[in-house]
């Protein structure tokens, strides 16, 4: 299944779920659920479920993930290597979280990408599936490269890339040395980082990458290559 990039928030199926900011129209929601249950178009169902999931995940993050810490402390910790907790960025910046999963039994690997703005709201999400059996480090490097290319295409800068692939992050920052097949991918990423100077990449804990990991698993299970441009305003209304 292949989904072309689109603004999910413009889809009447999703947008009409909100009667007004912060309130749900219960009857409308029930009607939409009944419509979805009878829908025979798999593409529509998948888009609806993923968008609803992203909205719910973003809403929970806003309500619970940062509770107990002030905004100033979150900003000061942003983009620190080896971060244990997902943190916000300084005003005007964006953060890309990347993760990968592999399934050698079906010769496929998936990449999950999530881009958030400086308020922590999801603005872009992607579930990308690739065919072939490749080493983990190459899969992780290609996932980072795909995320960077999407950010460049959408002109999303300044950008902080976060990955739990310690080796890949080290290679991108010229901390580690490699002579393997991964060099070509790393070289392309580094050349893009030089060209687009408002890009940095840091290592984080896997716990900070849960949504990206879930999207990677979704990609590998469904064999899809999907990029969603999500309206952050829709998320903020929940």
TrEMBL record:
<dbReference type="InterPro" id="IPR052929">
    <property type="entry name" value="RNase_H-like_EbsB-rel"/>
</dbReference>
<dbReference type="GO" id="GO:0004523">
    <property type="term" value="F:RNA-DNA hybrid ribonuclease activity"/>
</dbReference>
<dbReference type="InterPro" id="IPR012337">
    <property type="entry name" value="RNaseH-like_sf"/>
</dbReference>
<dbReference type="InterPro" id="IPR002156">
    <property type="entry name" value="RNaseH_domain"/>
</dbReference>
<feature type="domain" description="RNase H type-1">
    <location>
        <begin position="97"/>
        <end position="219"/>
    </location>
</feature>
<dbReference type="GO" id="GO:0003676">
    <property type="term" value="F:nucleic acid binding"/>
</dbReference>
<dbReference type="Pfam" id="PF13456">
    <property type="entry name" value="RVT_3"/>
</dbReference>
<dbReference type="InterPro" id="IPR044730">
    <property type="entry name" value="RNase_H-like_dom_plant"/>
</dbReference>
<dbReference type="InterPro" id="IPR036397">
    <property type="entry name" value="RNaseH_sf"/>
</dbReference>
<protein>
    <recommendedName>
        <fullName>RNase H type-1 domain-containing protein</fullName>
    </recommendedName>
</protein>
């Amino acid at each position: 299944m292949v989904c072309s990039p689109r603004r999910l928030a413009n889809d009447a199926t999703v947008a009409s779920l909100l009667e007004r900011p912060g309130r749900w129209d219960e009857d409308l929601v029930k009607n939409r659920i009944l419509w979805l249950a009878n829908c025979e178009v798999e593409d529509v169902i998948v888009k609806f479920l993923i968008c609803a999931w992203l909205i719910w995940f973003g809403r929970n993050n806003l309500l619970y993930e940062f509770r107990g810490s002030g905004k100033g402390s979150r900003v000061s910790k942003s983009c620190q290597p080896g971060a244990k907790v997902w943190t916000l960025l300084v005003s005007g910046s964006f953060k890309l979280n990347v993760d990968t999963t592999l399934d050698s039994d079906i010769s496929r690997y998936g990449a999950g990408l999530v881009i958030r703005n400086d308020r922590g709201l999801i603005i872009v999400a992607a579930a990308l599936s690739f065919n072939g059996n490749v080493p983990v480090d190459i899969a992780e490097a290609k996932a980072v490269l795909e995320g960077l290319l999407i950010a460049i295409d959408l002109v999303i800068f300044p950008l902080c890339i976060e990955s739990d692939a310690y080796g890949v992050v080290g290679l991108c920052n010229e901390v580690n040395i490699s002579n393997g097949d991964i060099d070509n991918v790393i070289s392309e990423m580094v050349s893009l980082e030089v060209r687009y100077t408002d890009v940095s990449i840091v290592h984080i804990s896997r716990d900070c990458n849960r949504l990206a990991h879930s999207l990677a698993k979704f990609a590998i299970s469904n064999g899809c290559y999907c990029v969603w441009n999500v309206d952050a305003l829709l998320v903020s209304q929940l």
